[in-house]
Amino acid sequence: MNDFFATLRRRHSVRHYQSDMPVESEKLHAVLESALSAPSAGDLQAYQIGVVENAEHRHALAQETDQAFIEQAPVCLVFCTDAERSAITFGERGRELYALQDATIAAAYAQLAAVAAGLGSAWVGYFNSQEVGRLLNLPPNLQAIAILTLGYPAELPEPTSRRHINDVVFQA
Ligand SMILES: Cc1cc2nc3c(=O)[nH]c(=O)nc-3n(C[C@H](O)[C@H](O)[C@H](O)COP(=O)(O)O)c2cc1C
What we know:
This protein has seven helices and four strands, in the order H-H-E-H-H-E-H-E-H-E-H. A four-stranded antiparallel sheet has the order 1-2-4-3. It has helices at 3-10, 25-36, 55-65, 69-72, 83-116, 129-135, 165-168; strands spanning 47-52, 75-82, 120-124, 142-151. It has a single domain (20-151), classed as NADH Oxidase (3-Layer(aba) Sandwich), CATH 3.40.109. The two termini are 29 Å apart. The protein is globular, with a radius of gyration of 17 Å. The protein is α+β, with helices and mostly antiparallel strands. The mean pLDDT is 97. Flavin mononucleotide is lined by residues 12-13, 15, 67, 122-126, 157, 160.
């Protein structure tokens, strides 16, 4: 199997980080470039990515989400939809669906790029978008939809289970 499939297999949610090991700016840049390489509806890339390195902001995010490990990770990427950017071209479907899909697939690419770069990550979705927006002073057009923690792992997570392929795939 090639590197890509090995990368997929190596990705597990990392919730313990080596706080004293910063993420090198070249690696962070590579992760962000990978996010931007994702497909998007009409190539509009209807999202923005907040890079949170500031310790106070990470602390505030950890408190808000009630997920302490967020603070341990030296970097958090906050993926935000910019729904109106998609709505200009695609109307309601852009506003309600495409912007969310654009931001989500960008985050998924970033998560895999993090693995390829030797980093760990976890996808955090359980938070109040309005509160996160307030904490990070986001403009009203942006809605935070996912936080990716990034850093060097301080654990080797066990692989989690998956549904059987026959339970998920159907012939249509
Ligand atoms: C939409 C979404 C929301 C998630 N929210 C959280 C979260 O708030 N906190 C957390 O620790 N993990 C969260 N996760 C990570 C999942 O728990 C994790 O991906 C799943 O248990 C499978 O484990 P794995 O990532 O190690 O394969 C989320 C994942 C997704 C895709």
